[in-house]
Amino acid sequence: MRTHVGIVGAGPAGLFLAEFLRQAGIDCVVLEARDREYVQQRVRAGVLEQGSIDAMRQLGVDARMNELGLEHHGFELLWGGRRLRIDMSELCGRSITVYGQQEVVKDLIDRRLEVGEPLLFEASDVQLHDVDSDAPRITFTHDGTAQELQCDFIAGCDGFHGISRPTVPEGVLQTFERVYPFAWLGILAHAAPSNEELIYANTDRGFALYSMRSPTVTRLYLQVAPDEDIAQWSDDRIWSELRTRLRTDDGFAPNEGEIFEKGITPMRSFVTEPMQWGRLFLAGDAAHIVPPTGAKGMNVAIADVQNLSEALIAHYRDTDDAQLVGYTERCLRKIWRVEHFSWFMTSMMHRPPDQDPFAAKLQRSQLDYLATSHAARVSLAENYAGLPRT
After folding, report:
1. How far, in Å, CA of 76 to CA of 57, rounded?
2. H-assigned helices in 164-223
3. In terms of CB atoms within 10 Å, which of 167, 189, 257, 366 comes out highest?
């Protein structure tokens, strides 16, 4: 089998890249280790910033997003029983849309299958070969048959635990990492949202996040220990803790309903540099991870593949490799801004188990500053709504 670009991974990064390339007339094959049902049902991010919304519309896969997505013009911070609304539309002229990552993935899978382009689910034994040559190859097994994909370039979009990044020889990549001393216990519940916008809560008992996925489903999170046993969290205990952490002076409380999914997500920041080696280009979680507090993971992955698609288009249309050479540098400008913002939001809203009174006072001072400074709110709003790629 022969193609221009071999794409490993059918998450948002791989699928967006495939559609950008298809519309530019560049052939690619997408390989995914999991089955279609798993890929379309795994719940991840839920917030699209303006650049990602624009990308959906540019590709013409925005019909369901326009119908089902929930546009938000602001979000709220809660501490000490008080709520502060950050009006993004007023402060920076942008908004965000709540539309689950699994829905984005469904839209892109439907498009790829509709146009008949290769998307191979349950591809096992995937290995990358000759990546540092002009003729890289991917070997894999599909439908019980061993196959080889010859390509010009390989895009590693297979996530933090994928095979793409480990293919790079030891000593080539430098990694930067911070593991946080807490995790998120997240739930999905059949309950109509009781607030129109997201609420980020800083409390003495730890962080909580009130969010939603649709007019009938809420998405909520609690800060817990990294080694928390989810079996110890009954539905009654979860709702009790959410009521306590989200309590406000005006009597707000989340609507409750049947919890139909729950899980624990560890928190880390991670960046690898460079994001390329030979003919292999890393994108999305294969190259970087952000804590979910800033709602940036899927958005920065989309930005990566916008950069990569533009670089590949320049290569094939104009025989210009300047953007391919500069891929890492271009991506990292946004990545490190996103890493900083995600760290800032995480540090401001969570209570580390070893937090001393001095650190708690500093945290409270930052929140109070947002309440009194227009400039501080502008900075928060423009980072949350999303800064330009470059």
Report:
1. 27
2. 164-167
3. 189
181 given a catalytic annotation: no
Is 72 an active-site residue? yes
Q: Contact at 8 Å (CB) between 211 and 46?
A: yes
pLDDT band at 41 (very low <50, low <70, confident <90, very high): confident
pTM confidence score: 0.94
Contact, 32 vs 123, CB < 8 A? Answer: yes
Residues 6+ apart with CB under 8 A from 144: none
Report the DSSP pairing between strands 124-129 and 174-190. Answer: unpaired
Q: What is the pLDDT of residues 176-218, one digit of tens each?
A: 999 999 999 999 999 999 999 999 999 999 999 999 988 999 9
Catalytic residue among 99, 180, 200, 221: 200
Contact yes or no for 70/214 (Cβ under 8 A): yes
Q: Tell me the one-letter amino acid at 358.
A: F
pLDDT band with cut points at 50, 70 and 90 for residue 46: confident
Catalytic residue, chosen from 12, 254, 291, 292, is 292
Asked if 384 is an active-site residue, the reply is yes
Q: Which two tokens stand for residue 340?
A: 């900083």
Residue partners of 251: CB distance under 8 A and separation at least 6: none
Q: How far apart are CA 193 and CA 209, in angstroms?
A: 13
Going along the chain from its start, the domains and CATH numbers come out as 5-46+101-176+268-345 (3.50.50.60)
- Torsion, Cα of 218, 199, 268, 17 (10° steps): 60
Instruction: Give me the chain's average pLDDT, please.
Output: 95
pLDDT tens figures, 300-310? 999 999 999 99
| 292 classed as catalytic | yes
Q: What is the pLDDT of residues 326-336, one digit of tens each?
A: 999 999 999 99
Identify whether 262 is a catalytic site residue.
no
CB 95, CB 71: distance < 8 Å = yes
Alpha-helical (H) ranges within 24-123 are 36-41, 50-59, 63-68, 88-92, 101-114
Which candidate in 106, 288, 296, 315 is catalytic? 296
| Candidates 72, 106, 315, 334; catalytic one | 72
